[in-house]
Amino acid sequence: MSTFGSVEENECVRVRTSLVSTITGDRTFATSRERGAEHASAEEGGANEAVDYSAFRQRYLAIQRSMQAATGSLRGRLRDMLAQTTADMARLAAVDAVMERALSPREQTLLGHVPALLGEHFERLRQTEQKALADAQVSEDAPAIAPGAWLDVFRKDVQSVLLAELDVRFHPVEGLLAALRTNSLERHVQKSA
Questions:
Q1: 73-112 CB burial, b ≥16 within 10 A, e <16
Q2: 76 located within any domain
Q3: Which residue positions in the chain have pLDDT lower than 50?
Q4: What integer pLDDT is reported at residue 38 of this predicted model?
Q5: Is residue 152 part of a domain?
Q6: Number of domains present in the structure of the chain
Q7: 174 is in which domain, residue-wise?
Q8: Which pTM value belongs to this model?
Q9: Read out DSSP for 111-169?
Q10: What's the confidence (pLDDT) of residue 37?
């Protein structure tokens, strides 16, 4: 019989922290300021022409695959531990396995649409800035627009979406952790009584 303890909790925290660091530290999604002034000024000059969404999409998909693999592995290990405790917890582990098999294809389909939606967002932001720059050239009253600012907005939006997806993917893991904690606490109380 497996015993639940801080090792599993620490592993879940480590994996989540690692994935958060990957998302927030990824150079593809870093803002101009984070990337450095030299790189930012080169990017601003050709921001509307040179920047292609495909690099963002490719990186997003790679991070998405990492999240899926890491959370799937954690979920499987925690479910196996849960199944080895009590009959009630084994049933809960079985329910989780059934839920994963039933819902995972739908989840993957829905999350698989996110890169296309981000591509549309990318184009909207680029076109909005192009229009604002054109309007600024025609009108003296138009506010000053920093060329390439749309790209920083997009990068931050992508990070936010990835972090939200990480939260969604960790919900089942957190549920299994809570069940293991409860079971461990109950066993400790029974031993103390």
A1: ebbebbbebbbebeeebeebbeebeeeeeeeeeeeeeeee
A2: yes
A3: 1-2, 38, 42, 44-48
A4: 46
A5: yes
A6: 1
A7: 6-192
A8: 0.83
A9: HHTHHHHHHHHHHHHHHHHHHHHHHHHH-TTSPP--TTHHHHHHHHHHHHHHHHHHHHH
A10: 52
